[in-house]
């Protein structure tokens, strides 16, 4: 144990939420000699990745058929890879299993207080002493207030659904729900043989439309721009598309191009993959980098089959349906409208004296720290960015930066003036890319590799890539020309694991190919036999094959 770890042995951090971000923050605390106390409202680890059949207020959940959009090598934490035999794109139960095993590997569960709801966060009497956290034990309704040296907010933002209203909505005789309420569709009477409108064309809207299409009478996918830039999970040669696009060489070459040409390149590649013009998917007046691309393998096929039809936004409701924009007043009859319209960014447990968002802004330095705090490094928001990649590695590097700041193992945060300057520059970047009227909607949008590099530099975790050109050419080649995985940030700096990191980086291709081996290794056969005893993977896989449903 080094001196910095010894000196911080008595520091205690309150972590709110035991999902992906909360778990990795707890692990980072332990790694750097800080005591974590994790408060989790439910009785389980895993957050929204633990499937819940019943809708619980304030608690998100994946749908039964949800598959991870990012590939396993891009999703894994930096020092805990997925098993080789896991598929490259995991059904939600395997993602949850990975998180449970991660918790066991690093003994996180003993630091989690389940069935505890954080009610309020306030400054301590002396603000330099940290925060007072009021918590309710849901088992017995006991409420107590405790002081913590620092707080990490890891509760995410999939808990407060956002639903717009439209003229005539109160007259509609069908049913209106939010995608937050959708758990299982294939056996759901609200969807079977019904006419369904899905409003919103993000990943949630795409997932609902794709799962509903095989069982519904008709699905209409509605968005104000009439479409979206859509990517399949796999690209040329069957490679996971994120492992092709998120590489230093590719991103570096792309960034040398003017913005308009950069968009044109990606639009050409996406259209070659999907056929946006033919299918009516191309959005109006939205370039590729001006929205979050949807990841979905089924929607193009279902549009070809006529099961899904693209429409512009909803103009108004009628008693028996909706009128879409630009549809000449035609009433499209429907039975169910699903609002896949996202979530509010809200943290009701934080008092306005601590974090004031009354102006609708979330002014966070590098999307983590609030410069207005007496000691900004003591309050961190982990896992908020929306990236063109995977969230777990982003949450991990944010949590490591947070812990390194608390333990004094990296350079301190800049002045308040400089932090606000960075925040304003980020808002300008968002306004330039997405439009001034959409700044708040895309406030946390980042490019995965660029953002992680930025945080890594602040935390002292950025690998010196070019020095490896001489010291280790094979590693250098993989750092530049292979996918940029989280293990790159374990090569140097506090918490470095260079041998493990090197192995993970050099074996990326082998691990991508591993699930497709025709002859399995003996140890993999044993692992699979253990996994298949008593789990539901085969039955859930059957649910993921909707092609049987339409014709049964």
From TrEMBL:
<keyword id="KW-1133">Transmembrane helix</keyword>
<dbReference type="InterPro" id="IPR050346">
    <property type="entry name" value="FMO-like"/>
</dbReference>
<dbReference type="GO" id="GO:0034899">
    <property type="term" value="F:trimethylamine monooxygenase activity"/>
</dbReference>
<keyword id="KW-0472">Membrane</keyword>
<comment type="similarity">
    <text>Belongs to the FMO family.</text>
</comment>
<keyword id="KW-0274">FAD</keyword>
<protein>
    <recommendedName>
        <fullName>Flavin-containing monooxygenase</fullName>
        <ecNumber>1.-.-.-</ecNumber>
    </recommendedName>
</protein>
<keyword id="KW-0521">NADP</keyword>
<dbReference type="Pfam" id="PF00743">
    <property type="entry name" value="FMO-like"/>
</dbReference>
<dbReference type="GO" id="GO:0050660">
    <property type="term" value="F:flavin adenine dinucleotide binding"/>
</dbReference>
<dbReference type="GO" id="GO:0005789">
    <property type="term" value="C:endoplasmic reticulum membrane"/>
</dbReference>
<keyword id="KW-0812">Transmembrane</keyword>
<dbReference type="InterPro" id="IPR000960">
    <property type="entry name" value="Flavin_mOase"/>
</dbReference>
<dbReference type="GO" id="GO:0004499">
    <property type="term" value="F:N,N-dimethylaniline monooxygenase activity"/>
</dbReference>
<keyword id="KW-0503">Monooxygenase</keyword>
<keyword id="KW-0256">Endoplasmic reticulum</keyword>
<dbReference type="InterPro" id="IPR036188">
    <property type="entry name" value="FAD/NAD-bd_sf"/>
</dbReference>
<comment type="function">
    <text>Broad spectrum monooxygenase that catalyzes the oxygenation of a wide variety of nitrogen- and sulfur-containing compounds including xenobiotics. Catalyzes the S-oxygenation of hypotaurine to produce taurine, an organic osmolyte involved in cell volume regulation as well as a variety of cytoprotective and developmental processes.</text>
</comment>
<feature type="region of interest" description="Disordered">
    <location>
        <begin position="519"/>
        <end position="552"/>
    </location>
</feature>
<dbReference type="InterPro" id="IPR020946">
    <property type="entry name" value="Flavin_mOase-like"/>
</dbReference>
<keyword id="KW-0560">Oxidoreductase</keyword>
<keyword id="KW-0285">Flavoprotein</keyword>
<dbReference type="GO" id="GO:0050661">
    <property type="term" value="F:NADP binding"/>
</dbReference>
